[in-house]
Design a protein that fits this description.
Elements (H helix, E strand, L loop, with lengths): L1 E6 L2 E4 L4 E9 L1 E12 L6 E6 L5 E3 L7 E6 L4 E6 L8 E11 L4 E5 L3 E6 L1
Parallel strand pairs: 2-11
Antiparallel strand pairs: 1-3, 3-8, 4-5, 4-9, 5-6, 7-8, 9-10, 9-11
Length: 120
């Protein structure tokens, strides 16, 4: 069994910062790509940022220069540092990861989501 647990969401004023964390636990043997997605009310889930095992990163145009994705491989943890937040960043943020367990090859797992609300 594998769990992805996000934390760090909450209410923040426009222009402020927030750091999200995602911890993978359970029967984790290896982690490949990890990503942050978000879903705003009435909208489709979208990719925000991704990071490979080799720490190559990619960002949605809407967050480039404001958000930074990183990992601590020793802790099986991924972070999303969000700066200069805007009301349009309001969404539920989801962690996504390709994880290999003791019992199977790589599979995709999702966290339960953490709400980020940016007030104007």
């Amino acid at each position: 069994q594998v769990q992805l647990v996000e934390s760090g969401g909450g209410l923040v004023q426009a222009g402020g910062s927030r750091r999200l964390s995602c911890v993978a636990s359970g029967s984790v043997v290896g982690i490949n790509d990890m990503s942050w997605f978000r879903q705003a009310p009435g909208k489709q889930r979208e990719l925000v940022a991704s990071i490979t095992r080799g720490r190559a990163t990619a960002y949605a145009d809407s967050v480039k220069g404001r958000f930074t994705i990183s990992t601590d491989n020793a802790k099986n943890t991924m972070y999303l540092q969000m700066n200069s937040l805007k009301p349009e960043d309001t969404a539920v943020y989801y962690c996504n990861a390709e994880i290999r367990t003791y019992f199977s090859g790589y599979s995709t797992y999702w966290g339960q989501g953490t709400q980020v609300t940016v007030s104007s």
